[in-house]
């Protein structure tokens, strides 16, 4: 967990973009197998749709999205990765 936090902090400091994407992180932490939407249970599908809707509402702003959803940025990043949501 600490290692991921360090990657995020480094990306925030070094990035010139207003939104962080997978290009800001090493491949070793961005290489994952996304979850297929057809294998999600209704609760997971609703969570995915809520995250996507909130990200659109805040124009991809992770901090505002995480605040609105009541989760940490780390949790939001892990859900984005799990559901293969790009922003």
What does this structure look like?
It is built from 5 helices and no strands. The mean pLDDT is 84. The longest helix is centred in the middle third of the chain and has 16 residues, at 42-57. 59% of the residues lie in helices and 0% in strands. Helix 3 (42-57) crosses helix 4 (62-69) and helix 4 (62-69) packs across helix 5. With 87 residues, the protein is an all-alpha fold. The radius of gyration is 13 Å and the shape is globular.
Properties at a glance:
mainly alpha, 5 helices, 59% helix, globular
Q: Helices and strands in order, then pairings?
A:
Elements: H1 2-14, H2 27-30, H3 42-57, H4 62-69, H5 73-82
Shape: globular
What structural category arises from helix and sheet content?
A: mainly alpha
Percent of residues in helices: 55-70%
Strand content: under 5%
Q: Which regions have little confidence, pLDDT < 50, spanning 5+ residues?
A: none
């Amino acid at each position: 967990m600490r290692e991921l936090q360090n990657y995020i902090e480094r990306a925030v400091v070094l990035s010139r973009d207003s939104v962080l994407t997978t290009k800001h992180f090493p491949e070793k932490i961005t290489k994952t197998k996304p979850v297929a939407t057809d294998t999600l249970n209704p609760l997971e599908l609703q969570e995915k749709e809520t995250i996507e809707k909130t990200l659109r509402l805040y124009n991809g702003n992770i901090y505002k999205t995480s605040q609105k959803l009541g989760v940490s940025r780390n949790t939001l990043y892990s859900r984005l990765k799990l559901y293969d949501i790009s922003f």
